[in-house]
Amino acid sequence: MSIVIGILFMVATYLMLSKSLLRIIVGTGLLSHGAHLLLLTMSGLKRGAPPLLGENAENYADPLPQALILTAIVISFGVTAFFLVLAYRAYKELGTDNIEQMRGTKGNE
Amino acid sequence: MSLLHLAIVAPLIFAILVPFFYKGFRRIHTGWFILPLPILLFVYFFSFISTTKSKEVVMKTLDWIPSLGINFTAKVDGLGLLFALLITGIGALVILYSIYYLSKDKEKLHNFYVYLLLFMGAMLGVVLSDNLIVMYAFWELTSFSSFLLIGYWYHREKSRYGAQKSMLITVFGGLSMLGGIILLYLMTGSFSITEIITQADVIVTSPLFIPALICVLLGAFTKSAQFPFHIWLPDAMEAPTPVSAYLHSATMVKAGIYLVARLTPVFAVDGLWLWLVASFGIFTLFWGSFSAVKQTDLKGILAFSTVSQLGLIMSLLGVGAASLHYDGLDDNIYVVATTAAIFHLINHATFKGSLFMVVGIIDHETGTRDIRKLGGLLNFMPITFTLAMIGAFSMAGLPPFNGFLSKEMFFTGMLRVLEMDFFSFDSFAILFPILAWVASVFTFIYSMILVFKTFTGKYQPEKLEKKPHEAPLGMLISPIILASLVIIIFFFPNSLLSDNLISPALASILPSLVTEETGFMVHIYQWHGFNPELFMTLGVIAVGILLYLTLPKWRRVYDLFPEKLTLNRFYDGAVERAQTGSFKFTKSFMNGSIRSYLVYIFTFFIVILATSLFYKNALKVDTSELATIGIYEVLLALLIVIAAVSILFAKTRLSQIILLGAVGYTVSLFYVLFRAPDLALTQLVIETVSVALFLVCFYHLPKLRKEENRVRFKLTNAVVSVGVGIVVTLIALSAHSNKFFSSISQYYIENTYEKAAGKNMVNVILVDFRGFDTLFEIAVLAIAALGIFGMIKLRLARREEE
Amino acid sequence: MRSRNNVILETTIRLVLFIIILFSVYIFFAGHYYPGGGFIGGLMTAGAIVLLLIAYDIKTVSIILPFNYRIMTGLGLLFAIGTSAGAIFFDVPFLTHAFGHIDLPILGDISLHTATIFDLGVYLVVVGVTMTIIQTIGEDE
Which residue is closest to B594 within chain A, CA to CA? Predict the structure, then answer.
């Protein structure tokens, strides 16, 4: 599992380092998946029943990371959406999705 | 919250109301609404005099951060009360004066009074709080309000320059003072001044003692404009004159004096304190008076004169601190220096306040403050002339004004330095009376310049903007009150001040000298026979008159100092270099490319995490607790890996999105396997929505172009990303294998039903136990939505405009 | 006139939409005991509306569901903050929830939670935010 997370992070980093905004956004998406899985892994996997008291089980899976991840998923959705629209808007305004070209070399000096 | 606390923060609270007064009653000058407050406070603090007179101290504590020992302890003792009375008393007069000085039609009065009240509250806080941290907070607030007041006419460039300068210098000092306070805390374990004083003997041996001393002194010297930090004060004169009279002569600049006086019992055990305070003070006295003579701006003269008078008080405090090295009061010849310091503090507030107001009147009525343009105003403004004369003669140390008394005591104090036989004072002691005398000569000269260049001599109407006339009565009231105090104090110093204010203040500065039975018996004499002090004064007058008359002949002395070497030049250069330097420095790594930033971030990430992993021996792979790996997990893991890696090689954006979606759905399947039904559901739905979102957006975005194929570029990316991948893998493995403490989840498992009556732990955690997270989370979501909405709609709106 | 997208899709959606929304409401209320809750319920509702958007176009959808989603977001935040702050008036820390049981004639034993109101806030925010995002992007052609 850890290796899967590692690969997710690796790919995400590679994508984020590229010049195209599209790839960067996809990269952040992957990164959040990786982070969520990492959180889940940290608490130990697959032990006990789902964290529902109705199950009346002896052991429950750790509910806390799950709650944290739930929050993280929704936030990452919000952020990804914001980023997407930012990219979209930037493209409409500037006509490029290459971040190297977007560098504000004009007007900043 | 006691009445005392309320009194301290009353100006701050009142400041909130000012804009309403200003808006609601435009016809009435806002100052009239403010005026009752300082008067009320003055009366309130006045009632404490009987308490401090009987050597009692009022302490009221209000818990603020008790866990750190930071409490808002208001303490009224002799010293604090003296300052509180000055602040409120002069404050009331200044506000009265400002009502006539600032026009209600042209000026932004609400700003002015808000800042002024802010200052008043902050200053009261400084002098009345016993806790050093609280005092520091108020201290910075005074710097801040001073900055705002100097920059009150912010459209003038000089105002902005002066404001910035004062801010930089005083805040620099304030920060170093904070360092000193923390060092004191490290030594004593307390922020309370009262407590620290009781430990003074213990901490003197600590290695932190000297750094703390220097840090605190830096704070005091910058605030009180001691050489070489005095350069901000002349530039601060760009503030409206009531502000200069209030902040930059009577109160704020004396905060440094207050600090030195307050901490004398702590630091005076060490000779370095005496040396630094006394020598910086005396040199500032000399330099300030020397520089004042060459000024042509009336306020410039007053500014340098304030600098020099502050130096005078400072040096007296330094010398007076020597008295702590004697037991008891008998034969304690240095107490007179401290007495003189306090006495002069009061006197200076009266005569300098009135002088500033007089200069304000001249400025207001003639339109200039340049002594080269002024002259012969005696016929037009007789009352102002009288006031100026009283103030200036008092400053010069002439009878029958209060300045004479304190100047005599100052000479006494300085002469007694000659007898000081410890801390190797004897070798340089002779410099003190000499410098004091020379400085007094210059003080005499500029006092004369102030009066006679302005009011006598040739009247030059062509150089004045307005036709001068006497100021309105309202404007004269405040300086008249101050000037009459100047005279009254001369005649009745003992009945007015000695027992009521000076002795209690002395008791706070030199607490170890007071016992139950004995107190300070201060007696101030107008006439004490033909002693050296009197001859010194006579000499000052004689030489002063001589030099004043021959001024044009020796004025060229001032040209000897090259322009380039002045402190102001140095300051300007330093500020400019700091600006360009930091700009260049930032520019070197902030090159505007997001990629470089990310590379920095990731590299740092790898380095810091990898080193801490190895350094802390955290790297541990323990497979014993791993769950059995089933066929489903393997399959899903393979699926994720394949999907993720193929994103890298995807040629079209559609395939990228679909692959991303595939990863997302597989992750949600993982959640199912890992017993997280809530997560699985959420992930599933969110993946759907976000794929839809991606599709909508990508529809508009351009096609993927082939990335640039520079090998180096790709290589860096590959190295960094592989590094990140490896580090994260290691962390994930070790995190799984290291269990230092049991998870807190057990608490949730046990309490979900009892405390929150729910059965779904995840949901209960979200809405109940960790509801704050959720609250902020939805706030973040809402902000994101607003941002998106704004980005798109704004653009639409703009397009419509075009 | 609006061109017909896909008859099969439209017909199916009319049917499925209600099921999804109903299910999302169920999931929302079930949240305290079984998998579900405000987030999931809200997202599911939003997903249903997105589906509707795919089948029809924005104008039609805004006629069918005439909500201002931004106001919905604000309302949700208000609910959430309101329930949290309400605790202050009962002299318990911010965000303390209360619950009780009521016997309703038909439905039987029902437990009432202030946490549910908080969750309702979450629900509203999620729906509001998702729809705001999609709507604004969609409108900007």
Answer: A99
